[in-house]
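question for whoever is on the cluster today: can someone run the full assembly for these? two chains, 642 residues total. i dont have access anymore since they changed the login thing
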Amino acid sequence: MRKKRHSLPRDIRCGDEALARLDGQVLKMKGQLTIDQAPDFIAGFFRCFRPEHHQSLHIDLGLLENVDSAGVMALHYVQQKMREKNIRVEMSGATATVLDKIRLFSPDEGIAVAQPLKAGWLERTGDAIHRFFSNYLFGFLLLAANVFYWGITDLFRTKVRRKGEVVNQAVLIGVNAVLIIVFLSFVIGYVIALHSAGQLRIFGANIFVVDLVVFSIMSQMGPLITAILVAGRSGSAIAAEIGTMKVTAELDALKTMGLNPNRFVVVPKLYACMLTLPFLIVFANVAGITGGALAANVYLDITPHIFINRMQDIMMMKDLYTALVKSQVYAGLIVLTGSFYGFRVERGAEGVGRMTTAAVVVSITLVILADAILGVLFY
Amino acid sequence: MNTEILDEMDKEKVVEVQSLYAAFGDTVVLSDVSFTAHKGEVCVILGGSGSGKTTVLKHLLSLYPVKRGLVKVLGKDVSRLREVEQVELYLQMGVFYQSGALINSLTVAENVALPLAQHSDLPDDLIDEIVMMKLSLVNLSHAFHLYPSQLSGGMLKRAALARAIVMNPPLLFCDEPGAGLDPVSLESLDSLILNLKEKMGMSIILVTHEVSSILRVADRIVFLDNGVVAFEGPLSEAIRSEQPAVREFFSVLKNEHMRQLVS
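^ ran it for u. tokens below:
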């Protein structure tokens, strides 16, 4: 017959403070059991108590002076773990104050929290594809159709437009972005000319720096840099503005005033962006070419006069038309993406932040993709 | 009792909800909600947190689609309205949101003028006059030039009320108008609501928890509990109701009322 083992009493401590003494199957609590002591109590108890040696556990609360919600939960946790191992647990001797707190903080028994079923990879993939098409692609196209419908029908109906709103948005989206776009385009034009100068000088083809700068700025860098900067500045602002309006029920208020939020909020931004982006691209082109001309003058001794003469020979009207078409496509993408993510905001301020980031990333991606497609079309 | 039922049948229904069901995912919010609100009355929708009051209100405002059940507002089934008809219905309703929901980029006067400017052919001067009149009605004419972010909580709510009534709608929805207001501001807001009912003949659907407000303004109570209507009827009957949830709520109300009487 197996001999019953008797272990010596062991103290459960939190630093120097003794929390409880475990003597066989009797756990004598003492002092305090609050949020400061609860972790040490649980760790100490499971270190000292050998469930395989006992059928029951008696918790004596007679010397326990104070307990808080974390302490009650720690006792409950011990009780629950012991029950899982078929060990009977009894508690006794609690003072009236401690008993009150145990009653107050005891969790509701019998409430089972349903664990969500974990979906398999196939289900998750299918779900993601379905979500992409139904929520994102369909939602985006629906918004685009609605906004363009109102954009076209309201074009000549000045009465339904908020007075000064298009100008206001044009200042925010366009005018306020002029300085940064001009500065960055100038730097990019300068750097393009600077890096090509060394190579061209080797072949004695200094004059071709003009072709390089003008072509790259006019057909690619000018429109693209402008669109990326506007997407970063205004795409995020649009998403944040609409998202905040949704969170503060302003969009609901517009609907219940009989105003379509797409028509009231998005269309003025679309007009403003479509109106200002071509001008911004022209400014970017001028600044970029000026930067290139400066670098050509400094490193390849091409005077501004020669630069302008050569530029007149190689510049084509097609480049301007292309830039104009690109600007309208980019404007549509930036405003629609910002608005789309703004309307999708949920769960307060955190949702606004998340959707603003998504709006910027997606609008820049879409602008670059559109640039590639238009580049092929207008090649 | 029979005469009361006959009286109710005679009154014109401004809101009629039958067997409304609503669920978000697996969570059923409204399992079977039916009630009516009549013309010229203040109908208070009551209930504990999570009882579905806001969900009912959003269905009445067509902000949530009706998936099961019937919702009629001013005699129109909201689930069958085309966009133009929906806008026409909205023009006959004023909505007062808990947060005010004023457009932050517009001043108080511009906010109040918005529905008029968009939906009427009135000259701008006249719109300005109407706006100032509505603002003075809510004691806010001095703040017409301020932006919503510059207003206090009470001023924000009064501005929102001015905007809600600027089109003189026959039906006004108020979502917890008293939330976060001190007792004095709350009382003045209640007087405004009563004035709207008595002097302008508006029918008002009010969602509120404020016991003092209920006592001051309610004609009819719709008590929601766990997604169903636990009680529907006049305030006087609600106070005597034996339904446990209603009795529990109104026991608090009686204490509050007693305290008010004592004070």
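summary bc i know u wont read the tokens: The longest helix of chain B spans residues 244-262. The interface with chain A takes residues 61-63, 87-88, 90-91, 93, 95, 97-99, 101-104, 114-115, 118-119, 163 of chain B (CB under 8 Å).
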